[in-house]
Design brief:
Layout: H1 19-34, H2 46-51, H3 64-67, H4 86-99, H5 104-131, H6 146-158, H7 163-167, H8 172-190, H9 204-220, H10 227-239, H11 244-253, H12 261-265, H13 268-290, H14 310-329, H15 354-373, H16 377-391, H17 413-434, H18 439-463, H19 467-477, H20 482-494, H21 498-511, H22 516-528, H23 532-545, H24 550-562, H25 566-579, H26 584-596, H27 600-613, H28 618-630, H29 634-647, H30 652-664, H31 668-681, H32 686-699, H33 702-715, H34 722-739
Helix pairs in contact: 1-5, 1-6, 1-18, 5-6, 5-8, 6-17, 8-9, 8-10, 9-13, 10-13, 10-16, 14-15, 15-16, 16-17, 19-20, 20-21, 21-22, 22-23, 22-24, 23-24, 24-25, 24-26, 25-26, 26-27, 26-28, 27-28, 28-29, 28-30, 29-30, 30-31, 31-32, 32-33, 33-34
Length: 741
């Protein structure tokens, strides 16, 4: 263990702050960078992981978070992404309980606070990795590199690549994983604080606690298990002070026999065995929890993993690594999604982008050679541990061990960026040490870099505040990404701007001709615009590409029904139900088809199925009441209407339909009550005023009838039949007036 000051640290142009002051400073920098995202909306993946995730609701059993994936789907389902992060989902649920609902401010604030805490704790992590492990008499970590560790932590706090993890609420998984990762590492370090001068003694209890914290990190995000690799490297290189270069020379050249007695005496093998056993148990438990095996990703998710040859796969994976490295070096071009053509595949060795692969490996080989072969033990240790912290947390995302479901994901760089920040701070320390004559210029450059980081974080955080700004910002970064155009179009359509949405959906389909979701959404808009022929063509193509696309089958059925292709429409609806058995909306639309064909029994059965699957399906209940009313089954219509209102006591449309039925049954008082209740909920419903007026007209309450006819005509002067009924009433009132004595 290194117990001396790091020689380049005192050259750093930073004040030597007390530990608390340093941590507060770093935390404030982190807050400054991301505070403007506190009042953002739920964006992008937040919709699935939070807004539509039933596991967050207090009504859902708490046990569900232990059997469902991150998105609320059962882990045993073949459609599950197998991302098992129950502790992260638990914090979402706590946010929901504290805020009393889905209010994004609380979610965002907790993310920002977590990043500030993690950034502050990074000082301790960097202090150990740079300056070695030492404790004072009170058991506190001694920082032998206070300035370098402070600078590295400030870089980490302000790095723009963290924006997705901090400003995007789903990034909570990365934040919690990083927090438990740090705690596991720092706890592992505690195992060597025995209050004794003997370096060979360690605490098994602290090693076990470190393993438990590693398990907690893994329950926040799968990447958490990589802390075991960092702990092992730290133990070998810093605790046991093993010179990897010298060790490899002895093993390869067999010059001097390897003396393992010292390693045995220090307990290294025991600790490695404990970590190895703990890691294997975690992986086994994780595999059992996944149930049906790893998730099945498509070529769209990760095209390089589907490349024709092993050579092309390796080349493209390495190109992805170089792009990740570029995001750490120059985090200006950031995008919420890098799939679907954003990064075109390298298909031959003559592609000019091969230069980036060569450059990446030249830099890595240079760093590794310095880390292994340098005569300077401090440099050797710092570079090696920096590279470990850079590479090891990235391993689960590198496609080596298993196929991942993305091309590039900025969030997976959250932990790896710590290694980059350590190496950057080390490099700057050496620059200040060697080029003391240019100290002022170097200070200006460091300050400028930090200012650029802070400004970029603020700008990027602002973009993450709404889906419109987030999706639009990606158009300049990834103009060839079909998903970017799709999301911009979807956002515009959700806001009612369907005309603008059409052009983005068309571009998404042009860029990715098999993009079935874009075809489906475009088909829906064209259906609403009554451009039914093109809508049918698009939806037919979508289901031919993906035959189990239930939503597209249903939408195709709606279009075919509008085109009066009733047999085809019925087949499309039943295909949708075949691929999604619990599909209440499809049963509802099937009922409408049967009603149009006067197949009343089939229509009622379809709508009843919709209400069984979704008891609050208002449209299905209302259509049943209306159909029974129109066919003269008033008694059954009354029963259905009352049943519906027991489930939906404040649904004014069902009240209106039931009131009409009761009026025809001459139950005027009850009918009046439902009409008035419906009007209290929706006072501007012209049809409700009109039908209530008809009721009063029949009932003989002519002045009340006159009042509601006039209200109906005021709200809708063109209301069918109302004007005629009103004129009839006025004539009757005139007759009564003239006939009065």
């Amino acid at each position: 263990m290194a117990l001396t000051e790091v020689y380049w640290d005192h050259h750093m142009p930073l004040p030597k702050l007390a530990p608390i002051q340093a941590k507060v400073t770093v935390a404030l920098v982190a807050l400054l960078c991301f505070i403007n995202s506190y009042d953002g909306e739920f964006v992008f993946d937040d919709s699935e992981a939070i807004v539509n995730n039933k596991d967050l609701r207090p009504t859902a059993p708490l046990n569900n978070i232990w059997s469902n994936d991150f998105w609320g789907s059962n882990l045993s389902s073949n459609s599950s992404h197998k991302s098992y992060r129950p502790l992260t989902v638990l914090t979402f649920r706590l946010n929901y309980l504290v805020a009393g609902g889905l209010h994004p401010v609380g979610f965002h604030v907790l993310n920002i606070v977590l990043h500030a805490v993690i950034s502050a704790l990074m000082i301790d992590v960097f202090a150990i990795l740079i300056g070695g492990l030492a404790y004072d008499e009170k058991g506190r970590i001694l920082n032998h590199a206070p300035k370098t560790s402070l600078l590295a932590a400030v870089f980490f706090a302000a790095h723009p690549v963290h924006t997705e993890s901090v400003a995007g609420i789903v990034g909570r998984a990365d934040l919690l994983c990083a927090l438990f990762f740090q705690l596991s590492f720092l706890t592992y370090c505690k195992a060597f604080n025995k209050g004794s001068d003997r370096d060979d003694r360690f605490s098994v209890q602290w090693v076990v606690v470190s393993l438990l914290l590693c398990a907690a990190a893994m329950l926040c995000k799968e990447q958490g298990i990589t802390v075991l690799g960092v702990n092992a490297a730290f133990d070998v290189l810093l605790i046991c002070n093993v010179n990897v270069y010298e060790l490899s020379q002895r093993l390869l050249l067999r010059k001097n026999p390897l003396d393992v007695s010292e390693i045995f005496r220090m307990g290294l093998l025991t600790r490695l065995a404990l970590m190895g056993l703990g890691g294997l148990l975690m992986l086994y438990a994780r595999w059992r929890i996944m149930g049906t095996g790893p998730p099945a990703f498509t070529e769209v998710d990760n095209p390089a993993s589907f490349a024709e040859s092993v050579f092309l796969r390796i080349v493209n994976y390495n190109y992805y690594y170089s792009l990740n490295a570029w995001l750490l070096l120059c985090p200006w071009w950031l995008c919420f999604d890098w799939s679907m053509g954003c990064v075109p595949l390298i298909k031959s060795a003559t592609d000019w982008r091969m230069v980036w692969l060569l450059l990446l490996w030249c830099i890595l080989i240079g760093l590794i050679s310095q880390a292994l072969c340098s005569q300077d033990s401090q440099r050797r240790r710092t570079l090696t541990l920096g590279l470990v912290l850079l590479v090891v947390p990235f391993l689960p995302a590198c496609n080596i061990f298993f196929r991942v479901g993305f091309v590039i994901a900025e969030r997976v760089l959250y932990l790896s960026s710590a290694g980059y920040c350590l190496l950057l701070a080390y490099s700057l320390g050496h620059c200040f040490c060697r080029w003391s004559k240019h100290r002022r210029l170097l200070c200006v450059m460091v300050l400028a870099l930090l200012c650029v980081y802070v400004v970029r974080c603020a700008l990027r955080s602002h973009q993450w505040r709404s889906e419109q700004s987030l999706f639009s910002s990606a158009l300049s970064v990834c103009p060839l990404n079909a998903k970017v155009h799709y999301n911009v179009g979807k956002n515009l359509a959700d806001k009612g701007n369907t005309s603008a949405a059409v052009s983005y959906y068309r571009e998404a389909v042009r860029l990715h001709p098999t993009y079935v979701h874009a075809m489906n959404n475009l088909g829906n808009i064209l259906k609403e615009k009554n451009e039914l022929i093109e809508a049918e063509q698009l939806l037919s193509k979508a289901v031919s590409i993906q035959p189990d696309f239930a939503a597209a089958w249903m939408n195709l059925g709606i279009v075919q029904n509008s085109l009066q292709k009733f047999e085809k429409a019925e087949k499309s609806y039943w295909n949708a139900i075949r691929f999604r058995r619990k599909y209440p909306d499809c049963y509802y639309n099937l009922g409408r088809l049967y009603a149009d064909q006067n197949r009343h029994i089939d229509a009622l059965n379809a709508w009843r199925n919709a209400t069984v699957l979704k008891p609050d399906h208002s449209l299905a209940w209302n259509n049943m009441v209306i159909l029974l009313d129109n066919t003269g089954n008033l008694g059954q219509a009354e029963l259905i209407g009352r049943e519906a209102l027991r489930l939906l006591p404040n649904d004014h449309t069902i009240m209106f339909s039931l009131a009409n039925v009761l009026g025809k049954l001459q139950k005027y008082k009850e009918s009046e009550g439902f009409f008035l209740h419906a009007l209290r909920i929706n006072p501007n419903a012209a049809s409700c005023h009109g039908n209530l007026a008809v009721l009063y007209h029949r009932w003989g309450k002519l002045e009340l009838a006159k009042k509601h006819y006039e209200l109906s005509l005021k709200l809708d002067p063109e209301a069918p039949g109302t004007r005629d009924n009103y004129n009839m009433l006025r004539r009757k009132l005139d007759q009564l007036k003239h006939s009065a004595p």
